[in-house]
Specification:
CATH topology of the largest domain: ABC transporter transmembrane region fold
CATH class of the largest domain: Mainly Alpha
Organism: Salipiger marinus
Protein name: ATP-binding cassette, subfamily B
Shape: elongated
CATH superfamily of the largest domain: ABC transporter type 1, transmembrane domain
GO molecular function: ABC-type oligopeptide transporter activity; ATP binding; ATP hydrolysis activity
Keywords: ATP-binding, Cell membrane, Membrane, Nucleotide-binding, Transmembrane, Transmembrane helix, Transport
Largest sheet: 6 strands, mixed
Number of strands: 10
Number of domains: 2
Pfam families: ABC_membrane (PF00664), ABC_tran (PF00005)
C-alpha cells in the first residue's frame, strides 16, 4: 500500500477541519437555510399521521363516528401528500446546491494547480493529479448531495419524532430513546475503521489511474511493444486492481458485525415497546391501545431516519479521507506568484533586451546548483546561442527565463524589469518558448495554433505556418487546418510537431524567442530551410537558442558555452572553434 493509517492520521490532522469543510457551504447559506426549513416542515407534517391514527383508534372507531373518521383519514392522506411534495422539492434544491459546491471545488483545485511551479509537476504523477480532480471530488458526490440531504431530512425527522414520542407518553419515550447512545458509539467505531481504509483505497486508485495514463497512451504502447513488456505490465495492473478490490471489500464490510447489532436492536424495539406497554397496563395509569399503536407508528417513523442518520454519520466520516487528499493539494504553496501591483509593458514598448545578473538556482535533489552565478547581457534584436554538454544547465536556464522556476539568487530582467515584477500577461507576451518536447492539444491544427492567439485570422495562421515550414504539409491534409492532431500530436511526426509548435509561437509574435532544441527532430534539409526562415523572422527580435546540435548556432551573434552550471566560454563560432576549449571539443563530437 502506498499510504498507511499513520500517514493518513497525520495528513488529515494537518489539512482537514470541520470549519474548513463548512466554509465550502458558506456561499450557499441562504439556499441551505431554505432546504432546512423545508426539511423541518416535512418532518412536522409527517408527525400528524400518528396522532390522527390515535384519534381514529381511540375516538372515531369506538364511537362509530363516520364523519370524524372521514376527516381524520383525509387528514392522514393530505399530510402524506404534502410531505411527499415538500420532500421532492427539497431533494431538487439539495442536489443543485451539492453540485454547485463540487463545481466550485473542482475549479478551485484546477486553478490552484495551474499556479504551481514546474517543480510540483516534475515530482508528481499525472495520474495522481487526475485522480484527485476527478475521482476524489467525485467521491464527495454522495456527501454533497445524498448524504447532506439525508442528514438534514433524517435529523429533522428524528428530532421532531422524538419530541412527539415524549408528548405521547414520556414513560415509553424513555424506554425507546435509551438505545440511542449505544448505537451512536457503535456507529462511530465502524466509521473510524472505514475512514482509514478509504484513504488507502483512494491512494491505490491513484496508482491505477497513473498506471493507465502511463501505459495506455501511444508512447506507452510503443515502449511496451518494443520492449516486450506487455505481459509484465498486465501483471502489475492485475496486482494494483486486486489490491483495490480487496480494499473496496474491506471498506464496505469493516465493522459489519458491530453494525448488525444496531440493526438487531432497532428491529426488536417495537416488540419490546409492546412488552413495556403491557407492563404499564398492569399499573394504575395504563397506556391506551391507541397510544401504543401511535407509539409503534412513531417508532417506524423514527427508526428509518435514525438508521439513515447513523449510516450518514458513518459514510460522512469516510469522506474525511477524500477531503484530506484534496486539501493536501490545495495547501501546496504557490512558488511563482504575481505581485499585487505588477509591472505591465505595452506590446509596442517592448524591446526584447535580456539581462542575467549573477543568477543561481538549484533543484531540491541535493546535487548542487544547476545554474551557478551566471551573468549575461543579451541586446535587443540579437541572436544568442547557449550550448554545452548534457547536464550543463542549458535547459534549466531556459526554465528560469520562462519563469517556470524563480531564481534563488540574482535576477533576470527583460527590458530592465525583474521577471518577478512583471505581470504574468506581460511576461507571456514578451517571451515565446518552443521546447524540445512540443506539446499539442488533442484538437484541430487551427485550434492548436489559436491557443497562442485566439483571435488570429486564417491568413495570419497560414503566414506563421509558412515561416515554420509546415504550411504545405497542413494544406495537403484532407481536412487542412481542421485536421485533428491526435493525442499529444500523435498523427504528426516529431519534426512536424516541432514545426507546428514553432508556428504557434510565431503567431503570438513575441519580441523574445526562446528555442530549446526546437529543431532537434528535423531532418537536415528541413532544418536548413527552417533556419533560413527563422533568420528572416528573427530580424528585430531577440532569439535565444538552446542547442545541442551546433550546426544550428554557427551564425549566432554570440555563443555562450556552459559547463556544470557556469558560463565558461563566450564568443562567435570562429573564435571559439579556434580557442580549443569546451566548444571546440563539442564540435569534434558532432
Amino acid at each position: 500500500m502506498t499510504d498507511g493509517p499513520e500517514n493518513y492520521d497525520d495528513l488529515a490532522a494537518r489539512h482537514v477541519s470541520l470549519r474548513r469543510v463548512l466554509r465550502l457551504f458558506a456561499p450557499y447559506r441562504l439556499r441551505i437555510a431554505a432546504v432546512v426549513a423545508l426539511m423541518i416542515l416535512a418532518a412536522a407534517v409527517g408527525l400528524a399521521g400518528p396522532f390522527l391514527l390515535r384519534a381514529i383508534i381511540d375516538i372515531a372507531l369506538p364511537q362509530q363516528d363516520l364523519p370524524l373518521l372521514i376527516w381524520l383519514a383525509g387528514g392522514m392522506i393530505t399530510a402524506a401528500l404534502a410531505s411527499a411534495g415538500i420532500g421532492a422539492l427539497q431533494v431538487v434544491l439539495s442536489a443543485r446546491i451539492g453540485q454547485a459546491i463540487l463545481h466550485d471545488l473542482r475549479v478551485r483545485l484546477y486553478a490552484h494547480l495551474q499556479t504551481l511551479s514546474l517543480r510540483f509537476f516534475t515530482a508528481t504523477r499525472t495520474g495522481d493529479v487526475q485522480a484527485r480532480i476527478a475521482g476524489d471530488i467525485a467521491g464527495l458526490q454522495s456527501l454533497m448531495t445524498d448524504s447532506a440531504n439525508e442528514l438534514g431530512r433524517s435529523l429533522s425527522a428524528v428530532v421532531m419524532t422524538a419530541v412527539a414520542i415524549v408528548i405521547l407518553d414520556w414513560r415509553l419515550a424513555l424506554f425507546v430513546l435509551m438505545i440511542v447512545p449505544v448505537t451512536v458509539l457503535i456507529s462511530a467505531r465502524v466509521a473510524r475503521l472505514r475512514e482509514a481504509l478509504t484513504f488507502q483505497q483512494q491512494a491505490r486508485a491513484s496508482d491505477m489511474s497513473a498506471a493507465v495514463q502511463e501505459t495506455l497512451s501511444a508512447p506507452g504502447i510503443i515502449l511496451a511493444r518494443t520492449m516486450g513488456r506487455g505481459p509484465w505490465l498486465t501483471q502489475r495492473f492485475t496486482r494494483i486492481s486486486h489490491d483495490l478490490a480487496q480494499l473496496e471489500v474491506r471498506s464496505h464490510t469493516a465493522g459489519e458485525w458491530q453494525w448488525s447489532l444496531i440493526g438487531f436492536a432497532l428491529a426488536t424495539l417495537p416488540a419490546l415497546t409492546l412488552l413495556a406497554g403491557g407492563l404499564l397496563m398492569q399499573g394504575g395509569n395504563p397506556a391506551s391501545i391507541g397510544t401504543l399503536v401511535a407509539m409503534i407508528a412513531l417508532q417506524e417513523q423514527l427508526l428509518w431516519p435514525f438508521e439513515q442518520l447513523l449510516e450518514v454519520g458513518r459514510d460522512t466520516r469516510k469522506t474525511r479521507a477524500l477531503f484530506a487528499r484534496i486539501f493536501e493539494y490545495l495547501d501546496k504553496p504557490v512558488e511563482i506568484t504575481e505581485r499585487s501591483d505588477p509591472v505591465t509593458i505595452p506590446r509596442t514598448a517592448m524591446r526584447g533586451e535580456v539581462e542575467l545578473d549573477h543568477v543561481s538556482f538549484a533543484y531540491t535533489d541535493g546535487r548542487g546548483p544547476a545554474v551557478n552565478d551566471v551573468s549575461l547581457t543579451i541586446p535587443a534584436g540579437s541572436h544568442v546561442a547557449i550550448v554545452g554538454p548534457t547536464g550543463s544547465g542549458k535547459t534549466t536556464l531556459g526554465y528560469l527565463l520562462a519563469r517556470l522556476y524563480d531564481v534563488e539568487s540574482g535576477a533576470i530582467r527583460f527590458d530592465g524589469v525583474d521577471l518577478r515584477d512583471l505581470s504574468f500577461e506581460t511576461l507571456s507576451q514578451m517571451l515565446g518558448v518552443v521546447s524540445q518536447e512540443p506539446y499539442l492539444l488533442h484538437a484541430t491544427v487551427a485550434e492548436n495554433l489559436r491557443f497562442a492567439r485566439p483571435g488570429a485570422t486564417k491568413d495570419e495562421m497560414i503566414t506563421a505556418a509558412k515561416v515554420a515550414q509546415i504550411h504545405n504539409h497542413i494544406a495537403g491534409l484532407p481536412e487542412g487546418y481542421d485536421t485533428l492532431v491526435g493525442e499529444g500530436g500523435s498523427r504528426f511526426s516529431g519534426g512536424e510537431k516541432q514545426r507546428l509548435a514553432l508556428a504557434r509561437t510565431i503567431l503570438r509574435d513575441p519580441p523574445i524567442l526562446l528555442l530549446d532544441e526546437a529543431t532537434s527532430a528535423l531532418d537536415t534539409r528541413t532544418e536548413r530551410a527552417m533556419s533560413q526562415a527563422l533568420e528572416t523572422m528573427s530580424k528585430g527580435r531577440t532569439t535565444i537558442t538552446i542547442a545541442h546540435r551546433l550546426s544550428t548556432v554557427r551564425h549566432a551573434d554570440l555563443i555562450v558555452v556552459m559547463h556544470r552550471g557556469r558560463v565558461v566560454e563566450t564568443g562567435r563560432h570562429e573564435a571559439l572553434a579556434a580557442k580549443g576549449g569546451i566548444y571546440a571539443g563539442l564540435l569534434v563530437g558532432t
